[in-house]
Design goal:
By secondary structure, the chain is of the alpha/beta class. Helix content is about 35%, strand content about 15%. It contains 13 helices and 10 strands. It has an 8-stranded mixed β-sheet, with helices on both faces. The protein has a two-stranded antiparallel ribbon with strand order 7-8. The longest helix is centred in the middle third of the chain and has 14 residues.
């Protein structure tokens, strides 16, 4: 059964005794909750966060499959500045982790398993390292706590293309998407990347077009994402069970860096699938199989 976070938000049942907010103001994230009559409420729910320009909808199929196969409650979220969640002027792993803690308070959840892809993966790594008592286990999808590849810095070209896009207001949604695709091709070579980004295109009632993601804020904080190592400096290693799932055609995780990663996540293993950065899209069956085996332990 699927519940919408906008319809079933519940008030905070009690405040945590520890200040989990990192002195930041959390937002109420939009979320989808997957549970059924077979859900084992004694197991920590799995909270899934998407990557940059993604949304909870990207994880709908995975969420439904995992709920059915593991009997766990599955929660997919829209990170701040994405999807149906609020837009803010702040964006960092610290802020998004505070949003996860806030969601736990809203739903009166004491402990969770976490999974995140790319940007969401770094958020969940920060969550595990900063608040280990709240995290039962973690799955990190094709992202490293260490340095990022050159591809990431080329994201600036994508941001500039998005910020400069002006779709004529007399076009309908389908034609507006085609227009945006042609314009984006001038700056972005990958059709898969363009198709993924265009999932964010929306048409307002007044005819203007907009991005669902808060592109300006995300661009303003792009460098913060690349400085992740400095954000976790001084935090103790996370000793809970952790699984990394990476694409062997992606260069977001350097195989040679695995010994360094294990110093941060000592109780971890890594699996390489025949895929690029969007591992869960390219190898869905194998991806879900790894998750089911991990979550059933």
């Amino acid at each position: 059964m699927l519940y919408s976070g906008r319809r079933f938000l519940v008030p905070i049942l009690k405040k945590c005794t520890r200040a989990y907010s990192d002195n930041v103001t959390p937002v109420k994230m939009a979320y989808n909750l997957f549970e059924g009559s077979n859900t084992d409420m004694s197991r920590p729910p799995l909270v899934i966060m998407h990557g940059l320009f993604g949304s909870k909808q990207n994880w709908r199929a995975v969420g439904k499959a995992l709920q059915a196969k593991t009997n766990r409650k599955i929660i997919t979220v829209d990170a701040r500045n994405h999807g149906d969640s609020p837009h803010t002027a702040e964006h960092s792993s610290m802020h998004m982790a505070a949003d996860i803690v806030h969601l736990m308070q809203q739903l009166d959840i004491k402990k969770i398993s976490v999974m995140g892809h790319s940007m969401g993966g770094r958020t969940m790594m920060y969550m595990a390292l900063k608040y280990p008592e709240l995290v039962d286990s973690g799955v990190i999808v094709d992202i490293s706590p260490l340095t990022l590849p050159r591809d990431f810095y080329e994201m600036e070209q994508i941001f500039n293309a998005m910020l400069n896009l002006r779709v004529p207001t007399d076009l309908n949604m389908a034609d507006g998407r085609k227009y945006a695709e042609v314009e984006m091709k001038k700056a972005v070579s990958s059709k898969e990347t363009i198709d993924f980004i265009l999932l964010n295109l929306r048409k307002n009632p007044d005819g203007t077009f907009r991005w669902a993601a808060n592109v300006q804020t995300l661009y303003n904080h792009l460098r913060l994402f690349s400085d992740f190592e400095s954000h976790i400096a001084g935090l103790q290693p996370y000793n809970g069970r952790t699984m990394f799932i990476c694409g062997n055609k992606s260069n977001f995780v350097d195989p040679k860096s695995w010994p360094q990663i294990q110093k941060i996540f000592p109780n971890s293993d890594i699996h390489w699938l025949d895929a690029g950065h969007l591992v869960h899209f390219e190898q869905p069956a194998k991806f879900v199989e790894l998750l089911v085996n991990f979550l059933k332990q």
